[in-house]
Amino acid sequence: MDYDVVVVGGSFAGLSAALQLARARRPVLLIDAGQPRNRFAEASHGFLGQDGASPAAIMRDGLRQLSAYPTVDFVHGKATQATAEGQGFKIVFEGTCEALTRRLILATGVTDELPLRSMISRWGVSVLHCPYCHGYEVRDRPIAVIANQPMAAHQGILLPDWGPTTYFTQGLFEPTAEETAHLTARGVRIERTPVVELLGEGQTTRALKLADGREVEAQAVFTAPKTRVTSALAEQLGCAFVDGVTGPHIQVDPMQQTTVTNVFAAGDAAQPMHNATLSSTAGVLAGIAAHRSLIMEAVS
Ligand SMILES: Cc1cc2nc3c(=O)[nH]c(=O)nc-3n(C[C@H](O)[C@H](O)[C@H](O)COP(=O)(O)OP(=O)(O)OC[C@H]3O[C@@H](n4cnc5c(N)ncnc54)[C@H](O)[C@@H]3O)c2cc1C
């Protein structure tokens, strides 16, 4: 085998996994296409010791520290194929390059599908997914929650801690009686006419245009995009998926083992709650679990 472990995806989850393995002195290949999910945001928040740092700076530091370990190889590129091969796996990357590995960690993240076109250029700036990540920066401004999935009312119930909130059902996600009571108790206004467009200069939002022509003031828009796991590697290997709130994710056990023996998965691609710290934690677990499985195999 070329490597003990190949890690696909080199962001919060993948770098954290590779770091554990590097420190255990194992030959590791990290393959990363360089498109972390939060790359649209100027700053990342809530990650201990890095609050307010730019996503690019966090990744740069992580990679620099990992590169100091002599057993780590790094490829900037895309892994396109994974197949079972002998006792391990063959990974194809950058078109024609191949690596053989005894263990595989998938940390490829997810890709967001935003519900409105006018959200795309504003994503990560005035269109946001997580109040804990960016709510503080838009505090006290008029906030809109645009429903895009059945749990959206919960986001509406949370957001008044950051600013005056309007919940837009989009005519699709009517809150239950219990949710309506919570929204009302929290002072949230409920609007049933769909938002058709965001208005404002550049990446800012000033107001929302509704289907009936009205404009409603909003300077920050929260929505939960639909997500899909970035990369088909887990499907190619036959890993099982489970439905999360925003889309399917790879099924893992508490030590990040997928349903395919010796394939581990971590980060947004393998959890329903999406957050940098949680992804990093899952990466650490996956790295340790892969390392332990190599040891257990050797002594059994
Ligand atoms: C706009 C925005 C802002 C956010 N802000 C915050 C915040 O402030 N705080 C916070 O805690 N969370 C934040 N998040 C959530 C956070 O970005 C994610 O939880 C975190 O990035 C997930 O880490 P990950 O390692 O699982 O995946 P990602 O960070 O998405 O990284 C996956 C990596 O794998 C690579 N990859 C994918 N497929 C392949 C392949 N086939 N071959 C090689 N490489 C591949 C990608 O290019 C990417 O580099 C934000 C999310 C968004 C959308």
- The total tally of domains equals 2
Report the order of strands and helices.
Answer: EHEHEEEEEEHEHEHEEEEEEHEEEH
Radius of gyration: 21 Å
Number of helices: 7
CATH superfamily of the largest domain: FAD/NAD(P)-binding domain
CATH class category name of the largest domain: Alpha Beta
Question: How many DSSP-defined strands?
Answer: 19
Which architecture of the largest domain does the CATH hierarchy give at level 2?
Answer: 3-Layer(bba) Sandwich
Classify the secondary structure makeup into a structural class: alpha/beta
Low-pLDDT parts are: none
Shape: elongated
CATH topology of the largest domain: FAD/NAD(P)-binding domain
| Mean pLDDT value | 97
How does the major sheet shape up?
Answer: 7 strands, mixed
Q: How many angstroms separate the termini?
A: 19 Å
Fraction of helical residues: 10-25%
Give structural notes:
This protein is of the alpha/beta class and 300 residues long. Helix content is 25%, strand content 28%. The strands form five sheets. Strands 1, 2, 3, 4, 5, 6 and 19 form a seven-stranded mixed sheet that branches. Helix 2 links the parallel strand 2 (28-32) and strand 3. The longest helix has 24 residues, at 276-299. Flavin-adenine dinucleotide (FAD) binds next to helix 1, strand 2 and helix 7. Flavin-adenine dinucleotide binds next to helix 1, strand 2 and helix 7.
